[in-house]
């Protein structure tokens, strides 16, 4: 009986503890990264994103000898849970997660509980080219402080089928539009990211004092502050697709509904997404996007490295590669991904900025002027509270 | 060896189940040190009770499970009673056998593509009716779970039919049916009155398996079931994925409730059996010769063809979507065909296929070794599988997966054990092993022991008899059992998802993950690849023995 006990002991012996790499010594980081494997936990529900990550994996392998594995999540929270449970189990070395596509509440939760490695993001070589902007430094009300590195900008827009329907003017007009076009509007079921963003968009537009949403949620006035949202939803739901009794599971699931002409208007998480989907046969070419007159909320996608990643150097190399102008250009190309770049055109070489200027934004993408400036996301603490209340009211009847 | 392997088999079957149940019970009782709960309390139960969807989700689980099981059983009984021994029946048997190994998720996707308001059936009707927009009907994900029930029935009919056919061989219904017919009973009536009671006794456990499975299935419920609220099992999986570790307590309490629901439903079903038996005896003794035999036969055939046709047409729809260019409503076929979807996903598909097959082959191989060890030990000691032994084999299939897999994951994490391929294979083995055992058991026991005696008389040791005589002669059933094992493993969603911790991506988990994105082309490609992975081993199991033993024509076992 001794043998199995010894074997078990040998199996569970921690692998030699290595010191965390110093982000400021980039040559050393590159050296250490060579041969490491990065498990990037990223939402896997969109085929164009999956293809992009696959392409990136080939690029970092060729250029830096880093093996990038995409772990496809249905919900980013899964990766947060993973790291949290690993810490509680004492698995502080070489955890399952090396890099997470993250922002908002998940970032706030991880930073607050010291689950993140850092600060490192401001030491990346490509960081100097990133635009200086409030949304880069503050993620849903939480200071970023170098614990996550940006890679894409998004702003909520609405897709509409120009062959069937005209846009609505403002958020408060949507229930009226739906009543006139019953069954032709829907949004993904919260807590889907886009579904929740749609709720926050409505909230920001409907409340009397949007400033209140920039501070943490409080049980005392949650009901009063969010009341306009619920009465607005109560008016909207009966006229929605399937009478509001069923919802698409995610943003891309709405593409099929638009293609089949089941609906005419649906929210979208990024201005270029619709153009990309048209190029991939996932949407008809009559789809256009619009922004209601009171503007829409925007946010930035980041990548973060858990404290117990065994491949921190390689994870930083991937994060830096994501900021490479060539990679950013590819991400912005609506034929590929259609994500907004986080780079500042004025800080780029003329050749690079020229390539961005020459990019065909796609038939359904609004020019920056029409997109307007993004409204701030509510403080991260509102997200959970709104989701819970939505589920209570509409998600479990 | 013959002593150790049966012991290993028990450990492989019940180790993960017992560990998982402990991992469920403790958090359900409020004890989860990893999340900061060190004292037992009622917090888990209280939070479960506070979930507004509790009653509808539980009712949904119970309703869809009982309905799917009853409907599948009725269809199987009608087709066997009305048509066994006919040419149509042989045709159905041949068509349904491969459907057994079509993974549940792939079948569910195919059916979704058929019955959605924008699906093939509606497209067929749309052009003649002049409809250009799909109707706003709640067919997929209807709150009563009818779409989900239909999907389950289509997959459970082949399973129950093959189980019934195996039972029929033992029940020897020929004489009873012949006597009944000579007394003037109609085909269906005579079969129901004389053969059914014998057969049902044999298929009772498989019926219970169908009931437990249908009540707690996750992948089919995610694809075809409602979402406001979802079924209890789907909700448990969602709670397991919540970043708030406290939700694991609620998930554990939910898992316990799911277990009680299934046990309750089994008791209820047993009571129903007694009731049917009492009225059935009176009906059998009543002497009516053929009440409605003709229409009942037609109904049985119609329902069977419908359920098999749904799966086959669904697979065809998957195949077309996987090569479709732009394809809008109400066109019956896409505007153009393209290999783009397959090319785009070839890398992902290949990676997932390698993982899928590696896990399935290892699990099937271990199951095969353990099964042969048990059967050989049985043969050498001259014992037969006792009813208790049979129940033990069925037990892991009768417990809902959602009752012990979340607990197993929590336990693995608390123990600091790494997730990955080995734990996933161990979890798959729990479900693969019983089916491999059922598949190999009868042919193994039917082998004529005089072959072994002759070899022993020539001086061969027991080990040599097994390796040189018995295994080669039983190659075909052994390969078939392995193929069954591979098909079961390929279809597993929850064990891969929960125990793999995201690092193990099989064709099944990839396909179900795509469900939320609604990209029908990608879903078509992955679901088709998943079906191929399950079916290919069966083709090999048929082809290989024929090739290897082409110079031994007499070797038909």
From TrEMBL, chain A:
Residues 1-19 form the signal peptide. Coiled coil: none annotated. Keywords: Signal. NCBIfam families: PRK11622.1. This is ABC transporter substrate-binding protein.
TrEMBL record, chain B:
The chain crosses the membrane at residues 60-84, 105-126, 146-168, 205-224, 249-269, 298-324, 357-377, 389-408, 420-440, 474-494, 523-549. Residues 54-268, 353-544 form the ABC transmembrane type-1 domain. One of its GO terms (biological process) is transmembrane transport. Keywords: Cell membrane, Membrane, Transmembrane, Transmembrane helix, Transport. It comes from the Bacteria. It is a multi-pass membrane protein. One of its GO terms (cellular component) is plasma membrane. It is found in: Cell membrane. This is ABC transporter permease subunit. It comes from Palleronia sediminis.
